[in-house]
Amino acid sequence: MLIAPETGPIAILLGFVSTLGLAHEAGLRQLTEKSFSPGQKVLVDYEAVAEFDGFEDANGRRMFWLLKYNTTKGVTTRSRTSWPISDLYRLVPVDRDRVVRGEIKRGKRNEISELSGLSFLFNGPNKADVHAITKKVIVVMPTTVAADFCKSTLLYGQPIKDVIPVGQVSADGEEMERWSTRFGAQEPVLLFASDLDVACSFAQDNQDDIELVIVDVAGRNREKHASIKRLNTRKIPCLLIASERIANETEVDQHNDFSVWEWGADDLRALVWPEKRLPSSNSEIAKFESRVQSTSSARPIVEKIAFPIVTDTYKTFCSLRRLAKQRGPDGPRELEEIVSEAFYAITRLMRCSAELTNKSQSVVDVDHRITAMTKVMNSSNYLSAEERSAAALVVDRIVEFRDQMLRRNPKQIALQGVLEKHPTIDLLCPDARLVMELEGIYKHRRNRVFASAVSGELFHNGLLVTGWFRKSRMASVLTPPIADPLILLLYDVERRWHQQFAEHRLTMREERKRLKGRQAIFPAIDGWKKPKEKVEVVESEESGIDNIEEVSSEIDERFRQRIYDRVSGGHSDADTKARLLLFAGGLYGLFTDNYKLNVVTHLFDTAFDADDDKAIVKVCGAKDVSVGDRIVFRTKSRDLIREVADELIEDGQREISGLWRVALRNYMSEHSVSDESMCSKLRAAGCNSQAQAISNWIRDDGMIAPQQYRTDVPIIAKVTDDEALKSQLKAVVEAIRNVRSAHQQKAPRLIAKRIRAKAAEVVRQEQADEPVIHLDGDLILVRVAETASKPIPVKYTAANRLVAGDSWPE
User: Would you call the peptide bond into 480 cis, given omega within 30 degrees of 0 as the criterion?
Assistant: First the structure.
């Protein structure tokens, strides 16, 4: 495993270099007469296609022949030319069905012409030969990023995809797709796979052809330990590349079988160009090196803000929380509610860095929580005297905290002081509720305000973080520092959380030192320095200050339980069954299995062009969604596909396409027919659908039409004897066809085109792990964090809605 400050294009570069090594080895094996046979189609100089016509000796020289066919005024003539065998390297085998075409320049060998990137690199055509490579290197990473990189990154003026045969493994792991036609029929030797499962599927049938698998351990590949073990079982060499942030979030015991090389300051100085020698370039490699140079030397600056009420309030809260923990899991629900409300009120005030008034949204929200806590305290009969007293003290402290902030906000004053020294510095506030306040204040200044920041973002003017947020957010900012200067505005409590974070980071580094190091990765190379002895890191425990991660995780777990309690009223009063999906960023929803979710995970991980027919939104039910999947919702509409489809069909088509359902419901209402009786009548008339399917036709407003609508809709017309349906039967069938096409093909493709550019940008900037991403217009992208294995009975009004929970502060 290789651990770097950030991964960037490392996986692609290592895959490319590995392939160059294979090409160099292959170049040592010269082309022979056995490499070609008469009748074989060949690509000459990567430009013209000819037919190979064998070898023969002429005047003491060994020659080979090429055939060309020319058609003039309907008459085809054949031309046969001889070539010295020393020009054999100019030929590449291609498919037999390729058409002979193009002009062959016989004297090209002696002309001053464009050389291939490999010819420049290895100083001669016989030093490297990609056509003789028999092995493949697989790189597992988002193929969108890889495709863009291979197209835009040049080697001696040629894109990487035209220097070596590059391509990708298809989504089912069974086929290879070429990214360039330059190499004729040759299979790609550098392959990209969207995730580890795809790579494993490919390896199952191509085990002996794989030289190395390189895995960028991020996104969907983070938790796929089983897939890595499957590759190891097949004795396929694997190189995992992880950022320090991801490595710190993984238990070291999971790496016991790995050799680990963690790049430190000395390694970076040896690997990266000195800053003064870095070329001025907009290439991905140059930008990556520039970021690494900047962030590897940056150190966060903590601006300590003295405000005793913050520490007093939080310690009072911690005392109340300990009382609640003493009650155990069966403690009173009211006490849990008070603890949750208090935590969110305190952290909300801590993070405020703008001037506050009684009308500020933050103050309004805190007042709402104060009222809620007071109401619970006054109405509950289950709180002990000690708990009631502790809760009242917490409320008093929060009120005092709020009042002091209204009079004077120390963090706002500290922020102004930083802006005086750094007038163009960017601001980061990972609490989306507070971003609008800051944007409103600084919209006329040069300071940009961000709700999230990742390693791919460039902060040339530095970055000011307005408080301490959860570890996942802060790790993306601090591991490594993503700006210089990087300034943190922290109260004393927040400073202690930062200290705990820094100690944990150092502890993880020390733990990894006990694993096999780079000397195990490069056993043939002598002279590696012995790793320093492990240093025992003692993580501090501040008296009375609970860790924010522990508190947040505990409250989140209670939140999940509250969702279930809130929506599951039991079978007697439930209208439907739905599965709980929890999304990163505090969003959740309960979705029925027949509700169609718009899954776009593959659009972020696969190299589709915007106009590619394969670029389509996948529609599936909640039971088919997996953790890590990305789903698009429209904030102003519950059905994105339907809304876009309505843009594509003619006015009135949807109403006409639904006349069969109107006929069914009118008939059932007028004749007091039950679902079961209606099913029997339709089946007796020749309908082959099952009873449950027919029942869904009647009840599901989202269903366009029965699957076999061309036969079932006429049966419905016959059974119901509905005049409107009978008189427009052909129009109804045609309308169904148009609406179904819009829903199943046209709308998903149109949505895919609209979000493809943004998707590529998100992945390129390594934002794929951000909890909530705002796409164009009112589209938002969320990531599935947790799924329920079984549906639960819920009220219909609670189902199929995206809900912003107030449990998670970010």
Answer: yes
Give residue-wise pLDDT tens across range 558-588.
Answer: 777 777 776 665 544 456 788 888 887 668 8
Region 306-313: what's the mean pLDDT?
Answer: 95
Cβ(319)–Cβ(544) under 8 Å?
yes
Q: Name the least confident of 16-20, 293-297, 360-364.
A: 293-297
Q: Is the dihedral of CA 280, 283, 285, 287 positive or negative?
A: positive
Instruction: Give long-range contacts, CB 8 A cutoff, 24+ apart: 709-713.
Output: 709/660, 709/733, 709/736, 709/740, 711/686, 711/687, 712/682, 712/687, 713/660
Residues 642, 646, 649, 654: is their CA dihedral positive or negative? positive
In 535-640, beta strands by DSSP E: 576-583, 587-591, 597-599, 618-620, 630-634
Helix (H), strand (E) counts: the chain: 28, 29
Task: Write out pLDDT tens, residues 19-71.
Answer: 888 887 776 656 678 878 898 988 887 678 899 999 998 888 889 999 988 77
- Backbone dihedral region for residue 676 (phi beyond 0: left; psi -120 to 50: alpha; all else: beta): alpha
CB atoms within 10 A of CB 265: 9
The secondary structure of 407-468, three-state, reads HCCHHHHHHHHHHHHCCCCEEECCCHHHHHHHHHHHCCCCCCEECCCCCCCCCCCCEEECCC
- SS3 call for 259: strand
- Between the alpha carbon of residue 417 and those of residues 106, 136, 464, the distances in Å are 73, 57, 12
Rounded to whole angstroms, what are the CA distances from 784 to 196, 243, 453, 756, 769?
Answer: 19, 22, 20, 20, 11
Say which residue the tokens 């425990």 belong to: 541
Contacts of 800 (CB under 8 A, 6+ apart): 578, 589, 590, 591, 592, 595, 638
Q: Which two tokens stand for residue 651?
A: 């006015």
Nearest Cα neighbor of 493 from 474, 454, 467 is 467
Place of tokens 């066809």: 737
For tokens 């709020």, the residue is 402
CA angle 413/415/421 to nearest 5° reads: 110
Whole-angstrom Cα distance, residue 697 to residue 380? 48
Say if CB 44 and CB 104 are below 8 A apart: yes
Both tokens assigned to 577: 């069954």
Counting residues of the chain whose pLDDT is more than 90, the rounded percentage is: 21
From the CB of residue 233, how many other CB atoms can be counted at a distance below 10 Å? 8
Q: State which H helix or E strand residue 78 sits in.
A: strand 75-84
DSSP structural state of residue 798: G
Q: How many CB atoms lie within 10 A of CB 123?
A: 9
- Using CA of residue 401, residue 402, residue 404, residue 410, what is the dihedral sign? positive
Q: What is the pLDDT of residue 110?
A: 44
Q: What is the pLDDT of residues 441-500, one digit of tens each?
A: 877 777 888 777 654 567 888 899 999 987 777 888 888 888 888 999 999 999 998 998
330 is written with which tokens?
């069966």
**Euclidean distance between CA atoms 164 and 92, whole angstroms:** 13
Give residue-wise pLDDT tens across range 726-743. 999 999 999 998 888 777
Residue type present at position 187: E
Interatomic CA distance for residues 35 and 334, integer angstroms: 80
Q: Are 597 and 641 in contact, with CB atoms under 8 Å apart?
A: no
**CB contact at 8 A, 428 and 467:** no
Residue 2: Cβ within 10 Å count: 21
pTM above 0.70, yes or no: no
- Is it true that the peptide bond before 714 is cis, omega within 30 degrees of 0? no
- Distance, in Å, from the CA atom of 519 to the CA atom of 210, rounded to the nearest integer, reads 24
Decide: residue 652, CB within 10 A, 0-12 exposed, 13-18 middle, 19+ buried: exposed
